[in-house]
Every structure is written in C-alpha cells, then in structure tokens.
Design goal:
Length: 252
C-alpha cells in the first residue's frame, strides 16, 4: 500500500519537473555507487567535439554531490518546478520544456567561456528566476525570518552563496539567471513591446507534450496562457506566499 502511494505521488509530479528530478537523482547516485564515473559526466568540449560524447551537453545539469545541500536543491527544483509547470505554464508542459532547453543551451555557451564543468546550479537558478518573475510581489522568508519580495530571491541566493563560500563568485548561478532573463525578455518583454516572439517553442515538443485543458486557464493567440506572468500578490508566510528557512544552507 505504501509503495503504491509513493508511486502515485511520484506520478502526480508534472512530467517535465518529474524528469528533471529523476535525472538529477539518478545521475547523482550513479557516481556515488560506482556505476558511472564523474569523469564521464562533466562538461568537456574536447570530449564533445573530438570524441562525440554528446551526453556531456546534458549530464552537467543533473549531477550533484551527495550531501545535505543536494536535499535543498531537490526541494527547490521540486517546489518551484511544480509551481511553474502548473501555474505559469499551466497545461503547456511543452513550453516549460522549451524554457528548460533554451536556458540550458545558453548556460552551456556561457559555461564554455567561464570554464564551468558542472551546471546544475545554473538550471536551478534559471527555474527560480522565472518563478520570481512570475511571482514578483510574493513575500519570501529567508533564513532567520528576513523577508523580501520574490523578485529579489535569486539575488539573495547569489549573495548568500558569495558570503558562505568566502567571496567565491558563483558564476554558475549567475549564468543560470542570465539565461532565464534572456528567455523572459525574448518571450515576454519584447513581444509585449510589439515585437515578434523570437524563440517560439519547437513544434516537435508540442507533439511530444500536447497542450492540456486546464480549468481557469485561457490561452492567448500566441499559445501562452493569458495570465502567464501575472503578478501573484499572495504574500507572507502565513498565507502560503513564502518559505521559512531554518539556519540556511549553501546551494551546492
């Protein structure tokens, strides 16, 4: 019975978020148990170009160390991934998948110039950044009850990582934010100024992940939900608008 309930809970997670979580858990556990070597998973352009190890373009986004920070990262991916896929991208998992793919491509390019070999934090911060844009007025509680609007959440995480790492710039997190901001600008801000959508979701993704009807969601002519980036003003920890963060832990 418990096994069936656990499986049902797993299947209830939206497909894109579920896939990200599954890949992260499997690719993080595999090296720890000697199934795969970390050397096969990090981003290495010579291996990609000269040895055609194309998997290295994907695996760096899903590998984490087995420590307490991994649990927090999985929690963030689970929480904000589900919220994006079921609200901002309600009924449009294909568009959410395209957001993940687009930001991953941009992060890979940025990672090349910054010599980044692991990009899991880039993926995490991209998800958090878009969530923050979609819920800009929501109140988030951080660490010892410090509260601020969600729009500042990614930058608070950057500052926190910078402090606890003793002034090491978290370039992987910055790259993730930059990639998500580029997506947000090209897919929402620029079209809102009268320009075309420059990065439409590939048709193939719509075939793999057909649009679903969602109660209360209306679709605009460009395929987006009409309230895609509507500000959520439900704030405060008492109203479900924030999270209580214990003593705080470094993100990866």
């Amino acid at each position: 019975m418990a096994e069936n309930e656990l499986l049902a809970a797993y299947r209830s997670i939206p497909i894109v978020t579920r896939s990200i979580l599954t890949a992260t858990i499997l690719l993080s556990l595999a090296p720890a148990f000697g199934i795969l070597s970390y050397q096969l998973l990090f981003l290495s352009w010579p291996h990609v170009i000269y040895r055609f190890q194309l998997h290295r373009l994907l695996t760096p986004f899903f590998v984490k160390g087995l420590d307490f920070n991994m649990l927090f990262d999985l929690y963030f991916l689970y929480t904000y991934g589900i919220q994006l896929e079921t609200t901002t991208f309600a009924g449009r998992s294909a568009d959410f998948a395209w957001f993940i793919l687009f930001t991953s491509i941009i992060s890979t390019i940025g990672g090349h110039f910054l010599n980044l070999v692991m990009l899991s934090q880039s993926l995490l911060l991209a998800v958090i950044y878009l969530w923050a844009q979609s819920n800009s007025e929501r109140i988030v509680s951080f660490m010892f009850g410090f509260q601020f609007k969600a729009i500042y959440f990614p930058w608070v995480l950057i500052a926190y990582s910078f402090v606890i790492s003793r002034a090491v710039v978290p370039w992987d997190m910055i790259v993730g934010i930059a990639s998500a901001h580029l997506y947000y600008f090209l897919n929402h801000v620029y079209p809102g100024m009268g320009g075309p959508r420059l990065i439409p979701t590939p048709t193939l993704l719509y075939k793999l992940l057909p649009r679903q009807e969602v109660a209360g969601a209306t679709f605009a002519s460009n395929g987006e939900t009409a309230n895609m980036y509507r500000v959520n003003t439900a704030g405060g920890s008492g109203s479900g608008g924030g999270h209580q963060w214990g003593r705080g832990h470094r993100l990866g």
